[in-house]
Design brief:
The protein is an alpha/beta fold and 254 residues long. The protein has eleven helices and seven strands. The protein has a single domain, classed as 3-Layer(aba) Sandwich (Rossmann fold), CATH 3.40.50.1820. A seven-stranded mixed sheet has the order 1-3-2-4-5-6-7, sandwiched between helices.
């Protein structure tokens, strides 16, 4: 049997939730947010992709089809029948791929400053700049600073970039980029009736309300959107309690 991906769990409640991180992220990024959930109502499991965090030693193709199969193996191991999904940034691509293979077992999805199913649609020049971040920490710092509105402490930006360098392999980091930056599978999700909550950061310059209106909200008929004040692209760091409150409210709705 294939080895399970690494994960962290908070709570043991009946509402099961799987959280999938962004390009610079890992499972531990969700810890402050997850600890704000009612542990008697929610079980929050944060997942590490192959080549990341607690799964850093796992090799593979580093595709989101692969991560969807890995995540299904994990939720089956945990004994979950129905579950909801949270995806941050490239994790938005990951949760949609998982939804497509889950066979109706996904109850709700939360898209946190999340890349839509059409990908980031990067042109060659922009993709090349992002590819340089595979080996250059300074480029990671530039991207993190820009995506949070160039308003947060440089020390924090540097720490996030350094942690991402340490917690992911270059092979995985580079391969996932090409997936979320260029691969369009939007025709597979259009009209999907899964309830979706789209959360946008007030200072996120790219994954903004206009883009979300044209993608997530256009394709999912049961979707709604909320803007998180005083946050850029990383609300699990910038406003973790407000993020937890917004997600809990959505997941509690019947």
């Amino acid at each position: 049997m294939n080895e399970l991906n690494g994960y962290l769990q908070v709570g043991n409640g009946p509402v099961k939730v799987l959280a999938m991180s962004g390009w610079f992220g890992e499972a531990a990024d969700w810890s402050v947010m997850a600890n704000a959930f009612d542990p008697d109502l929610f079980t929050i499991v944060s997942f590490d992709y192959r080549g990341y965090g607690r799964s850093r030693h796992l090799s593979g193709e580093f595709t989101f089809e692969e991560s969807a199969n890995d995540a299904m193996r994990l939720v089956n191991h945990l004994g979950w029948d129905r579950f909801s999904l949270i995806g941050h940034s490239m994790g938005g691509v990951a949760i949609q791929r998982l939804m497509l293979v889950a066979g109706g077992r996904v109850e709700k999805m939360v898209a946190v400053t999340a890349v839509p199913a059409c990908s980031a649609r990067m042109d060659a020049q922009r993709l090349a700049m992002f590819e340089s971040a595979v080996t250059e920490q300074a480029k990671r710092e530039f991207i993190i600073n820009f995506s949070t509105g160039s308003r947060l402490p440089a020390t924090w930006v540097r720490q996030v970039a350094q942690r991402s360098m340490e917690s992911s392999t270059p092979a995985a980091f580079g391969a996932y980029l090409k997936q979320w930056a260029t691969v369009d599978f939007s025709e597979l999700v259009q009209g999907n009736e899964t309830p979706v909550k789209v959360l946008v950061g007030e200072y996120d310059p790219t994954l903004n309300t206009d883009l979300m209106q044209r993608t997530w909200l256009s394709w999912y008929p049961n979707s709604s959107m909320e803007t998180l004040a005083n946050s850029g692209h990383y609300p699990m760091f910038e406003v973790p309690l407000a993020l937890a409150a917004a997600i809990q409210e959505f997941l509690r709705q019947s």
